Amino acid sequence: MQPFIEMNKLNLYYGEFHALKDVSVQIPERAITAFIGPSGCGKSTLLRTLNRMNDRIPGARVEGRVAIGGIDIYSGEVHVESLRKKIGMVFQQPNPFPKSIYDNVAFGPKQHGIRGKKKLDELVEQSLRSAVLWDEVKDDLRRPALSLSGGQQQRLCIARALAVEPDILLMDEATSALDPISTFKIEELTHELKDRYTIVMVTHNMQQAARVSQQTVFFLNGEVIEHDATRQLFANPVDSRTQDYISGRFG
Amino acid sequence: MSVKKPAHPTLAYSFGKRRGASVLLDRLFTGLVWGTGIIVILFIVGLLFLLLEKGLPQLSWNFLYGLPSEIEEGGGIGPALFNSFYVLIISLIVSIPIGIAAGIYLAEFAPNNKLIEVVRICVEGLSSVPSIIFGLFGIALFVEFFEIGLTILGAAISLAFLNLPVLTRVTEESIRAVPVELRNASFALGSTHLQTIRRVLLPVAMNGIMTGICLTAGRAFGESAVIILTAGVSTSGEMWDFNLLSPGGTLAVHLWYVQSEAIVPDAQEIAQKTTAVLIIVALLINIVFRVPLWLNERKNKA
């Protein structure tokens, strides 16, 4: 498969702390790639380098190359806002704005200059449908987003991310705060979305990685230990540390 | 209420009874908190009653609208009441944008260094400086430097200075209190810093900022020291006098004047009625600023 996101000898430092060490990973287009590894191994940090959310952390410093579609996103020619428009992100805790359901989904498009009620209505419906939330909320889009359940809020956050029409969706442990049924719904959703979006997910849940992803990258202490097709990595890990981790011996 | 021990010989199981110091203390504390709460509420209600009792029943439109009288009975508070609002509104127009802007700067843009720390301490210090100092500053600036005399403009701007530190601090604190998750959500959607501030941080922080504005508006409305020094104790004696350079005695100053200097025979009565008006307006200011927030909250919170 053609690599869509390419990281080449990527190093990231938080002040003195060397958080990512010589990371080189290639992520294919329109597939789900899972980052697994124990807490603090750098997988979330790596996710945040893709949409440059680390820029906002004082003392964070990036070396090496991250290219999306062949363009170096740290080259200075890329506006961080237009980069993030192409890359949606879903966080660990559902974080809807204290606004209505409609205003949450319409938020992104409005910031990118989309005006006109009709166009926005369409985008909101389409995004809520993509996030499989439409049927549950279509009767009253003016309801406060915070009145939804945790799982619904998380799907609303996915809809909100999809509304800016990104190509990539980053999911930072997006189901770890949810109950099993909501988790299942979101996993099903990612399965449907992968035909249209390149999805990169960080997960603590190895079964989840095994269930939904096509590619899996295993991290330890800021380094890539192993990267392979998910089935391959879980069935026949090459590195003994991967073997130990996926068999639950540590982590 | 005591529960009788049921005679259940079959029930061998028991949770036991938790007695002792911790339970007693908990009861005692609960009682204490309730007691204090009730006493404070009674005190506030009683105080309101005492202050409003004499003045409120006598209030009339003639009094609210009427021109003050220096010698005869039956003077009104029209111009003073008007000045109160006029000065308040001008001071808010000056202080709200600057205060909020400074608060945004300190919360979002200011670097973490010693200089900004010092600025913060200064802002905090200034918010507890006695108001008369700002009055003296007003005199120095408007009466002595610009030589415009005792004016509504001078009073309004001096009041704005008085309220700036509080507004700045409240805005900074409220913006800092916005959960970082919301900030991240906005940035991750590709919003610029300005968009994030306008569409996420300020709306979420608005409740706190409004509390600050209410506080400062109430303070400005009831302020007397600054007004006496910068706007004088008298009014132009006309109703609806929008001239910024008129003398600007406000209601709070009028109250002080009537109580201490006036020679009208009904001074006592005027003072009582003025007190009632001051209290009611102060309550109204709070309600006026709060109602939009309440409505918004009902719409957006679960």
UniProtKB/TrEMBL annotation, chain B:
Q: Under the GO molecular function aspect, what terms does this record hold? A: phosphate transmembrane transporter activity
> Which residues fall in a coiled-coil region?
none
Gene3D superfamilies per record: MetI-like (1.10.3720.10)
Please list the residue ranges annotated as the ABC transmembrane type-1 domain: 81-289
- GO terms (BP aspect): phosphate ion transmembrane transport
The record's section on InterPro entries has: MetI-like (IPR000515), MetI-like_sf (IPR035906), Phosphate_PstA (IPR005672)
The UniProt entry's GO CC annotations, sorted and at most eight, read: plasma membrane
Instruction: Report membrane topology.
Output: Multi-pass membrane protein
Asked whether the UniProt record includes Membrane among its keywords, one would answer yes
- Keyword annotations for this protein? Cell membrane, Membrane, Transmembrane, Transmembrane helix, Transport
Q: Which SUPFAM superfamilies match?
A: MetI-like
Q: Which segments cross the bilayer?
A: 28-52, 85-106, 118-142, 148-167, 276-295
Predominant location category: membrane
Where in the cell does this protein reside?
A: Cell membrane
Which protein family is it in?
A: Belongs to the binding-protein-dependent transport system permease family. CysTW subfamily.
User: This chain belongs to which protein, by name?
Assistant: Phosphate transport system permease protein PstA
Annotated source species: Paenibacillus vortex V453
